[in-house]
Amino acid sequence: MKHAGMTSIVQNTTRLVAGFIAVFAVYIALTGHLSPGGGFAGGVILAAAAALVLLAFGGRRTQAVLSEGTCHVVDAAGALGFVAIALGGLGAGVFFANFLPLGELHRFASGGTIALANLAILVKVGAGLVGVLLALAVYGTARYVAAERARGESPDPFLEI
Amino acid sequence: MGITIYVLTFALLLIGIYAVVAKKNVVKIIVGVLVIDYAVNLFLVLVGYRTGGGAPILAEGQPVTEFARTAVDPLPQAMVLTSIVIGLGITALMVAMAIRLWENYRTFDMNEIRRLRG
Amino acid sequence: MSVSHLVPFLAVLPLGMAFLFVGLAHVRGGQRVVPGLAVLTVAANLVLATALIGVEVGPIFVGGWGAGKTLGIQLNCDGLAKFMAVTINLVALVSIVFALAYMRRFTKVWLFHALFLLMTGAMNGLVLAGDLFNMFVFLEIAAIASYALVGFGCEAEELEAAFKYLILGTVGSAFVLVGIGILYAMTGHLNMGMVAATLAKVGTTGPAVLLAAAALLGGLALKAAMVPFHAWLPDAHPSAPAPISAMLSGVLIKASGVYALARVVFNVLGPNAPLATVLMALGALSMVIGVFLAVGQWDFKRLLAYHSVSQMGYVVLALGAAADVLAVGGNRTVAGLCLFGGLFHLFNHAAFKSLLFLSSGALEQQVGTRWLKEMGGLARRMPVTSFCCRVGALSIAGVPPFNGFFSKLIIIVGLAMAGHPVLAALAALVALMTLVSFVKVQRYALEGEPAGDGAATAREAPLLMGVAMAVLAVICIGGGLAMVPLGAHLLDPAREVLLDGAQALKEVLP
């Protein structure tokens, strides 16, 4: 195969857009205590950026940049960050209690630990979803193609990502 | 509105159950489970809805009493969000298992995926 | 800082460690420390759960929301939760020590330990949860981890069982969520104590409450594998690796099925006649049909799985009889006796069924088959495993002085005193059938001459597996004799919570 993935139009558009989508995901997560959104929504949007890259450039090239192992480590870091925020609350009396100044209503610096928790969830959900996408897209099809080859059949060329 | 929408939600639940019980294709069963999930989520959102209600987000300068009078109940929405997250995890697991099932049995037909004896 | 501040760690420590393992797996040398850390985590949890016995812990308001608020997560560390936490962590510790030796032939052992701790932590959270929705969330986390663990070996049969289990489990969970949604729509609360208080005002026999109860009971009965919702269990439990079979049969169906049923029926809806009848019908059906299906089995683990259905029937039947007595305002002592028997049998079943599944795993690994007809003569070749297997079999069959005898006796006496002599006789008959079924196991697996090459060349199981089985065997032998101290410290506080019915959780009210 000369090039994996989709045409150069799609690839170049993806190069332009993917970064903006990722920044938007962080924005959605960080303002989750003021407007609709939050860590989970942000994480899903982040994963959408990764899905775009995956579709445009194909599984192997995406995996060279972003392996499943990296996703595991980042995912674990997000979860542990969330636990750390909960433990910080234990220092203030009870589990998950707020230990930061509450700030002023309708300003960015409000909501105490909520913004931090949203950030941790963004990392966790984003990395987790990207890991799921990589696992399903790359391993699923790669194993399928290998199995078909082993049986002496020629699999659909579209699957050779 | 009123009772109709609850009836429709219940119908959606029944469609999902029908797909899970009667269909023999792994992919169709997965879709059935997703439909059940959506029906339950829809039901939870309806529980918190009030006719003509607004989004439960306090706007700047809005009096709290007026907000409490007009906003819909945010708690079921939080429940639905959690339920969607759980559904996402289960969907990923189901799809991964379906891929592995295909590799082992070379079929999606539940009638042929039957090596375990009763 | 007292021990009661540490209650959330029962759930959070295993969950946090599970995620730490995922990170450690990709660090050089990290995979080697994972099994040791897992054992330490579960051991720490068991110490914490044991330290909580006898300590008065009020409702814990996570996040500091305070009493009387609709919002906020609340943990409920009462007698029942402590009893369940001790049972769960005890079985988890034994299973994970067994797994140290048993899981050596698998790849990705770190993933096993991460999923194991995820399941254990979620079960601890499930029994601590003070509100219905958190109970549901932890139920789902435990269930998702168990789906993945059932299919852990990725063999064809294991995936088939895991897929069936996943589909049925998810449908069951959906019904639980519908029930919770209806209760929230009626009462405007999710906190169990506040739901119970509001339901007491509006009445608990209206059509909407019955609909919610039907959805909750149906979903949770599926999780508890009550007949006719049992179809997934005989596939799923034998397909998992042996330590996981022990966890699933030993504690998961109890925590996510029986415990949740008891909590909802007694403490949220309040015991009433229709619910009690449903519970007794489910229990009696499971007890009888489970044992009849078990008798004809030749696959050792499948036989044990059908016995789990049957033995859980005993527990639910006892709970139903107690609810029946309480519903009509009957004698509190009789209801208490039924509950004592039910909870004691739950604990005993956790001990002997885990022991039986662990020894079946040891036999399978050393002999290379699960078919009873291909075993034989193993009492001489594997003395420790065989001894432990015998102790477990005698306990489940209800032979004195093993622990199963006492709990079954209490259940039968309780049923008779509660005015159900027919059910009491049925329970005694099922105990006899169980004995017959396990005589068959002894006869074919342990006695006689080896029926195959595997059985003829089998060697004793590794040391750690033997230690794990021996600990459970000691509990099975000592459990019956230690009934009085066990009852005073663990079972009586748990029983009181259920006896108080809808009043039990009123501490959370403003």
Topology of helices and strands:
The complex is a heterotrimer of chains A (161), B (118) and C (510).
Chain A: H1 8-30, H2 39-57, H3 59-65, H4 68-91, H5 114-150
Chain B: H1 3-22, H2 26-48, H3 64-70, H4 74-105
Chain C: H1 9-24, H2 30-51, E1 60-61, E2 74-75, H3 79-102, H4 109-128, H5 132-150, H6 156-187, H7 192-202, H8 207-223, H9 233-239, H10 242-269, H11 273-295, H12 300-327, H13 332-367, H14 378-381, H15 383-397, H16 403-417, H17 421-446, H18 453-456, H19 463-481, H20 483-499
Antiparallel strand pairs in C: 1-2
Helix pairs in contact in C: 1-2, 1-4, 2-3, 2-4, 3-4, 3-10, 3-13, 3-19, 3-20, 4-5, 4-10, 5-6, 5-10, 6-7, 6-8, 6-9, 7-10, 8-10, 9-10, 9-12, 10-12, 10-13, 11-12, 11-17, 12-13, 12-16, 12-17, 13-15, 13-16, 13-19, 13-20, 15-17, 15-19, 16-17, 16-19
What can you tell me about this protein's structure?
- The complex is a heterotrimer of chains A (161), B (118) and C (510).
- With 161 residues, chain A is mainly alpha-helical.
- Chain A has one domain.
- In chain A, 68% of the residues lie in helices and 0% in strands.
- Chain A has five helices and no strands.
- The longest helix of chain A is centred in the C-terminal third of the chain and has 37 residues, at 114-150.
- The radius of gyration of chain A is 20 Å and the shape is elongated.
- Chain A starts with 7 loop residues before the first helix and ends in an 11-residue tail after the last helix.
- The mean pLDDT of chain A is 85.
- Chain B has a single domain (3-105), classed as Helix Hairpins, CATH 1.10.287.
- Helices cover 69% and strands 0% of the residues of chain B.
- Chain B contains four helices and no strands.
- Chain C is globular, with a radius of gyration of 22 Å.
- Chain C has a two-stranded antiparallel ribbon with strand order 1-2.
- The mean pLDDT of chain C is 91.
- Chain C has 510 residues and is mainly α.
- Chain C has one domain (3-508).
- The longest helix of chain C has 36 residues, at 332-367.
- Chains in contact: A-B, A-C, B-C.
- The B-C interface holds B 13, 17, 20, 26, 29, 33, 36-37, 39-40, 43-44, 47, 75-76, 79, 82-83, 86, 89-90, 93-94, 97-98, 100-101, 104-105, 113-116 and C 70-71, 133, 137, 140, 144, 147-148, 151, 154-157, 159-163, 166-167, 170-171, 173-174, 177-178, 181, 184-185, 190, 235, 239.
